Amino acid sequence: QGYKSTSYDKGAATTYCYFAYPSYLQRLNWKSAYVYNFGRSAMTMRSDHKNSYRACARWPKAIEMAEVLDKVIIGLGTNDSKLFAGDWTDTDNQQFISDFFVLVDTLSENNKDIQFMYYNSLVHGSSGRYGADFILELQSECVNQAKQKGYDIELCDMNTYSKENMPLNT
């Protein structure tokens, strides 16, 4: 969604909207593309969590529009690299991969030409249960498995980019 970029409940932009990456991407491509923003802040791809993206109103809208989309950016943020309870286990790994494939399988079901870009998790500037490094390997594994299944998908290493170019806690 772009944290603090839009007020989903009110359908109105806040003062942060202009600087959020979906808005910026639209401005860069204003002559050649339309950017739809189906993201939702504070959600997770994990279907076994109370804040599952698939339970929010934007997921059915994304599915509804999927057949006209050329490219889909999957930008998983810190909520997808957060330890929900206890240690992350092999079962959590399998759940993450399974939920990833629900996402890409569903979006490409009626549009086999969709190209995916997978933005891995940015560095999170605070301490705590966010930004676990092991999730980067898991995200990379999702992309590798998707390529093996024939998906047109690329991994964009936003984690390294954010470490090198963005001050923490901003």
What do you see in this structure?
The chain has five helices and five strands; from the N terminus they run ββααβαβαβα. It has about 170 residues and is α/β, with parallel strands linked by helices. The radius of gyration is 16 Å and the shape is globular. About 5% of the residues have low confidence.
Largest sheet: 3 strands, parallel
Number of helices: 5
Low-pLDDT segments: 7-16
Query: What portion of residues is helical?
Result: 25-40%
Query: What spatial form do the alpha-carbon principal axes imply?
Result: globular
Spatial order of the strands forming the largest sheet: 3-4-5
Number of strands: 5
* N- to C-terminal distance: 17 Å
How do the SSEs run, as a string of H and E?
A: EEHHEHEHEH
| Proportion of beta-strand residues | 5-15%
Rg, rounded, reads 16 Å
- Tell me, rounded to a whole number, the average pLDDT: 80
The class by helix and strand makeup works out as alpha/beta
Topology:
Blueprint: E1 6-7, E2 12-13, H1 21-28, H2 58-65, E3 71-75, H3 90-108, E4 115-119, H4 134-148, E5 152-156, H5 158-165
Parallel strand pairs: 3-4, 4-5
Antiparallel strand pairs: 1-2
Helix pairs in contact: 3-4
Main attributes of the structure:
about 170 residues; alpha/beta; 3-stranded parallel β-sheet; two-stranded antiparallel ribbon; 5 helices; 5 strands
